[in-house]
Write a structure and sequence with these properties.
Keywords: Signal. By secondary structure, the chain is mainly β. It contains three helices and 18 strands. Strands 2, 5, 6, 8, 9, 10, 14, 15, 17 and 18 form a ten-stranded mixed beta sheet that branches. Strands 1, 3, 4 and 7 form a four-stranded antiparallel beta sheet that branches. Strands 11, 12, 13 and 16 form a four-stranded antiparallel beta sheet that branches. It is globular and about 55 Å long.
Length: 268
């Protein structure tokens, strides 16, 4: 859908605050299982607890957007202001990955309490001490954040495996949620700069067909793997965050990198 100028302006006014205030950013396909001839659509969503607002497509806010299936990678180019953010024809049958990396954006912490709440929720052990030991202010300081999001869709026969798509941080499903016998769990590896992230928190959201969302925290093992409990007919969002010092010459004092993965299990 193409936005008229007035709606486009309103979208700009609304999207900025939401990006700054809400936590997760994820890709929400309209269908997780599709026929070969189907036209596919996916929303960009930003929110908390697997509930969020639709965001329009703005190429200036993206570093990359790709449609990937097997070894085929097709860069995605949408129209400014499109909602849903992505619409496309699948290039072939198989396990399709939609991948998006946003441009860095910035948010200001106006209170110490909000930073404490963020560090506590994400289980960033020692972050508050690191902040204070660097002599950083406790109010009115900036953070830079970048999103690395993937979504898995089964097209036609849906065969195939997820793989490393070259993002600075990303989840990789180690089994196919649409084809493999999972026996109640899906193993997923978390990477940062191509290496497993060991003993870090992953937030797992599960949404039932009725829209009820449950949340659990799981830690990666010594191979960077989390074993995610899964049930038929549910949609899943995995979220993990990295925090690192920003460059000395930058306005932000911290960089955060947010990895998300969405998928769904077929119903019984």
């Amino acid at each position: 859908m193409r936005l008229c100028p007035f709606v486009f302006f309103c979208a700009l006014c609304l999207i900025g605050p939401r990006l700054a205030l809400a936590h997760e950013f994820w890709i929400a396909p309209w269908k997780y299982q599709a026929e070969s001839t189907d036209s596919l659509a996916a929303d960009f969503r930003n929110g908390e607890g697997f509930v969020g607002s639709e965001l329009a497509y703005f190429d200036t806010q993206l570093q990359r957007a790709d449609i990937m299936i097997g070894t085929s990678v097709t860069p995605y180019k949408g129209r400014l202001g499109d909602i849903p953010a992505m619409t496309f024809q699948p290039p072939q049958d198989g396990l399709l990955t939609v991948g998006v990396v946003t441009q860095p954006a910035q948010v200001k912490y106006k209170s110490w309490e909000k930073f404490v709440a963020f560090a506590t929720h994400q289980d960033f052990r020692g972050l508050l001490d690191r902040h204070l030991s660097r002599g950083l202010p406790q109010v009115d300081f900036w953070e830079s954040y970048t999103r690395y999001s993937k979504s898995l869709i089964a097209v036609g026969h849906g065969r195939g495996q997820d793989t490393d798509r070259g993002m600075e941080t990303e989840f990789i499903a180690l089994a196919n949620p649409y084809r493999d016998d999972l026996n109640g769990t899906l193993p997923v590896r978390l990477l940062y700069q191509g290496m497993p992230r060991v003993d870090v928190q992953v937030e797992v959201f599960a949404k039932s067909a009725e829209g009820t969302v449950t949340t659990r925290m799981i830690r990666t093992d010594d191979q960077g793997i989390v074993t995610v409990p899964v049930q038929a007919g549910q949609e899943y969002l995995l979220n993990a965050v990295i925090v690192r010092p920003a460059p000395d010459d930058a306005r932000p004092v911290w960089d955060t990198l947010w990895a998300t993965l969405t998928f769904a299990l077929p119903g019984d």
